[in-house]
Amino acid sequence: MGATLALPQFTLEDYLAFEEQSADKHEFWNGQIFAMAGASPVHNQICFTLAMMVGRQLSSQCRGYSSDQKIRIEAADLNTYADLTIVCGEPNYHAKHHALLLNPRVIFEVLSPATAAYDRGEKWSCYQQLPSLTDYLLVEQDRAQIEHYILLPDGGWRYVRAAGLESALTIGSLNCQLPLSEIYNGIEFPPLPPPRSTIQLINESWFSSEDKS
Fold first, then answer.
1. Half-sphere exposure for 197 (CA within 13 Å, toward CB)
2. What is the pTM of this model?
3. C-alpha to C-alpha distance for 195 and 158, rounded to whole angstroms
4. For 103-113, what is each residue's pLDDT tens digit?
5. What is the number of domains present in the chain?
6. CATH of the domain at 150
7. How many CB atoms lie within 10 A of CB 2?
C-alpha cells in the first residue's frame, strides 16, 4: 500500500497573504485553503435585494457587511465569507488581523447547487460556534423559500421556514420584515422537474410464477 500524501499546512498569516493577492475568494479551515464557488447573476441579484431590504430596516445600533467581509470563527479555526452579515453593537475584530470580523449576529447565505449542502452542513456547524450569532438564514435561489434558525435561551435552535411568494419572514432580533415577493421580485425560477411516473408494484406471485417456469 502506498504512503498517504500529507496535505500542506498553512498558517493564518499564509492564508491572509495569499488572499490579498488572489482575485478569487478562499476559505481557511484547519490549516487548509479552499477555493469558494463563484456566484451566478441570480445569486448576486438576490444578495443585492436582501442587503437593501435589511439595510433600510436596521436600527442605528446595527450595521451590515457585504459578501467581501471576512469572518473568523476561532473555535472552528475557520475564515470564511457570508453573503450578508449583520452586527449589532460594537463590531469586534481579530486582535492581530483587523480585517477579520468576530461577532456577527445575523448571517445570510444564498444557496446554490454547488454550496447548499455545505451551507446546511459543515459551515452551519461552524457558524454555531460563534457566541454572538442569534440568527442564520438560508435563502433559496431556485424557488421562493427561506429557512431561518433562531437561537433559543437554552442554546438550542428553532427552525422556521417561509415558502411561496405570498409568505413573509420576521427576524425578531433585528425587528425586520422580509416579504418573499420583494426578495424574489424579477427572479425567474427554473422550471420544476416533471412528476415521476406512477410506480407499478410487483406482486409476490410474479416471483413464484417465475420460479415455476
1. 2
2. 0.86
3. 32
4. 999 999 999 98
5. 1
6. 3.90.1570.10
7. 4
